[in-house]
């Protein structure tokens, strides 16, 4: 079954219209999605290239060992997501909410972050390399081994954060 069919079936399941819970393992995807509910979806060892997500919920989802290249995430809700061992290269995140999420052993390289929030999140061994953006909120973010090498942001709001 294609990654697109699995993702769309998960959205139907979350909305009570049939479908089934999504579990992408070793899949490849490059589709455009909007308005989906992918909460609780599990992605493992999957590759996303040029995939676009708009107004999509990933609440309490789990992503492990996934690769995202040239992807865009606009107005997406990643609340309480768990991201482990993933790489994001040349991806954009606009109006995204990662509040309460956990990110570990993952890197963001040459990514753009605009008006996103990581409030009350947990980071461990996270690289934010050569990234840029505008407003980044991270009230109460707790992070260990976080690397912001060559990254520049216009407005960082890290009140009560404890990083490194």
Helix tally?
1
Distance between the termini: 42 Å
Structural class comes to: mainly beta
Radius of gyration from the CA trace?
A: 15 Å
In CATH, the homologous superfamily goes by the name: E3 ubiquitin-protein ligase SopA
Overall 3D shape:
globular
Largest sheet: 12 strands, parallel
Share in helix: under 10%
Uncertain residue segments: none
Mean pLDDT: 94
The tally of strands reads 20
Instruction: Label the CATH architecture.
Output: 3 Solenoid
Tally of discrete structural domains: 1
What is the strand content? over 45%
Order of helices and strands: HEEEEEEEEEEEEEEEEEEEE
Write the layout of secondary structure elements.
Blueprint: H1 3-14, E1 23-25, E2 28-29, E3 32-34, E4 42-44, E5 47-49, E6 52-54, E7 62-64, E8 67-69, E9 72-74, E10 82-84, E11 87-89, E12 92-94, E13 102-109, E14 112-114, E15 116-117, E16 122-129, E17 132-137, E18 142-147, E19 152-157, E20 162-163
Key structural traits:
164 residues; mainly beta; Pectate Lyase C-like; 1 helix
Q: What features would you describe in this structure?
A:
This protein has a single domain, classed as Pectate Lyase C-like (3 Solenoid). The protein has 1 helix and 20 strands. It is globular and about 45 Å long. With 164 residues, it is mainly β. Strands 1, 2, 4, 5, 7, 8, 10, 11, 13, 16, 18 and 20 form a 12-stranded parallel β-sheet that branches. Strands 3, 6, 9, 12, 14, 15, 17 and 19 form an 8-stranded parallel β-sheet that branches.
